[in-house]
Amino acid sequence: MPSPPTPDLVNLPHTDPESCPRKRGAGKPKTPEIAVSQTPRSQQDSCVAMAAELGDQYWEFNVGTIARMLSPKQLKPQWSTQDPYPPLSSFTCLVEDHAVQQALRTMPVPKAFELVAAERKNYYTLADFFNSCVRNCNAAYDNAQRKLSPGGPFMLKPRKDRWWPTLKFFSYDRDMKDRVDGAAPLKPNLVAGGSVTSRDCYWSMPSNRVDSGMEVLVAVEVCAMPLRLFSVVIGVNHIAHTLRFLIYHRGGLTASYEIDLYEAQGRQDVQRVIFSILLWQNSADAGLPIFTDGVHFKIPSIGTSSLVGVTTDKVLFLSLSVRGRGTLVLVRNTRAAQEKMKTNHHKNTTGPNLGKYSWPNSRKRRIEAEMYNTCDGQFGVPKHLVSFEACNPDGAALSDSIFLPPRSDNDTFASYRWYPLTAQLKLEPSPPDYRSLFVTYTADEGRTLEHCKSAWDLSECLLHALLGWLSFMNGGFLHRDVTIGNVVKPDKPVWRPAFSTRAFKLFEAYRHPIQAEDSETITQGLANKHLVRDSDGALTSSDDDFWIKLRAAVVEDEYLEKVVLAAERLEKALAKLGVSTECKALLIDGDTAAELKTYFSSSKHAGAISGTPEFMSDALRTVLTRDYVQNPVDDLHSFVWTALWATVYNRRTLEGAGDDDSKMDVQGWRKSLSGDGSERSKTLSDIAHPLIDVSGHAPLVKGMSPLFRKWKSSLETLEVRFIIAWRVPGALPRQKLYMFYRIALEGVADYAEMLYEQRERLQALQ
């Protein structure tokens, strides 16, 4: 269906909230270049997935409240724009204006009708009913426009210029002409659009509507979906002759109370809600952010007082969801725009960059921006340009709070809960899921690890990403969502300050007194640049006693001493490999990260388990419903699954398979990884097992096979060491934190030492 015209912006695709029903975090990670469509699942399976995604986040309100939720609105002056989750009561709603209310009261009641048992026979009847509501609303709109006070907070455009100039319902009852990957095409009973009845209808813009020369069809079709705040669905119970308005939004599902279509008041209530929709004037009223049309974006220009216009080049990653983060990562190029704005930053946004858009929950609202600011530009970490919370024209954050109960206590929340599914009664109620749209731009673009050219290239990129993970830990953050979509390989290696375990903040209080008389040498050593090493990577400079002195300084703290030993070991391993300032991979995406300084602030870890199921550790996948302290070993396992995905989905793996059996192996591996992940361990065993012959496979598989075998074994040993240490009773929060750092450093040191041992074999396969 074509979209209504949008002033100053290109047309936006309208999307259905159930067109992408995936369990949160479970969307198949992919880039457009390597995406392989899944077998479309049935509508029944989609409903099951949607129920899992929504959880217990079902709410219901009276019709008047629903009409206010959908009405154009402005934040009241007395409410601070700093509140990311303003309640509905903090807004002045157009539908409550005196002139609009007067127009509502003059609308005739839609004629009575009857529904029959044969559902299909009701489609034309319902279309006629909805169209009669639209006609009445259009007349009321014209009436309200004439009488609306010119000095008030709202203006009504002529009907031809509003968001929906025309709206017509008609019976459809067949498959749409497009669908979302992983779901069967939808088959709506009725369709509403701004054009005349059409044989073919689309949720997204059909390809012949894209301007000539614009290679942005993918962006046009998908960008508006993850950035949309809500979608409205009308559900009719043909047997009970009742109707509900269903608002799917980033925090779940909000519904109207059941409306009886046989009652005059019920038909008036339907008309009332439709009127709120027909009052929409612009994209913001329709739940779309005002700074983008899905292809072109305007973002703060850092260090100046203007906006910068950016245009989508390609989609790097998209995780479709209704409730949840709905992460979208886009590669963009910038162009100057003239609009003025205030800024306090000092970096340049010109040139190619990555834009990430997501809907973090209230607990994770600013975590990614804080993580990037703290670790900006360190080894394995992207350069942070800007982060901001999307706002509406009135300055209010673009959040789902208007569709949820106001923040209060559980007793108040209970009065708004809706239980459409019997199983929900058994769930422990959780508070409303408040979310807002957060945007982050980083300077370094690249591709995912499926595009590595060889096993050595992949294994080296993994090491650099692991060092980025440690850089985040040194800044005080545990990443907790390492996936194929969250490791970026720049098109060319980028310069970064050399990684140094000597610079770890844990050592800061002990480091400075070690050689106060030679502080300049120590400072240079922290950059890992001016240290002389022998053929085995051992330090031979006068600073060689740094670790001896550091161990002596911490000798009375056995937990910290083990961290020092692991840090020294990793430094030597990196020196042997010649890791310097050339960085080949970056770890991105921090909106599920956790601050380590508060990780053990209570007896029970306060943060929920996070991650993407395909890449979670086996331990994490089996404890999703129980208390569990997510730890560095889980992230290290995620690196293994990321490496496996990058190996199996690299095009060279299939193209380089020497025989049909090997090609069938690869196709089977891909199927096992892109499903629910239950067979991924078998795939790892197939590739890594010493008794399985991989000689007929591509050099990438032959190169990674021994590395996977040893890596898997070392991680199992590391996990046992962690469990034994963790179970020692009486450990203080500080000591638990030291355990985290020790295990993280040991895990990366294990990998670096393995890489050094196998470097000649891996390099020979390039």
Automatic annotation (TrEMBL):
InterPro entries from the UniProt entry: Pkinase_fungal
Q: Name one Pfam family in it.
A: Pkinase_fungal
Q: Which residues form the Fungal-type protein kinase domain?
A: 228-488
Superkingdom of this protein's organism: Eukaryota
| Region of interest: Disordered | 1-42, 339-359
Q: Which PANTHER family would you find in this protein's record? A: FUNK1 11, FUNK1 6
> What is this protein called in UniProt?
Fungal-type protein kinase domain-containing protein
Q: What is the organism field in this record?
A: Lentinus tigrinus ALCF2SS1-6
Lineage in the entry? Eukaryota, Fungi, Dikarya, Basidiomycota, Agaricomycotina
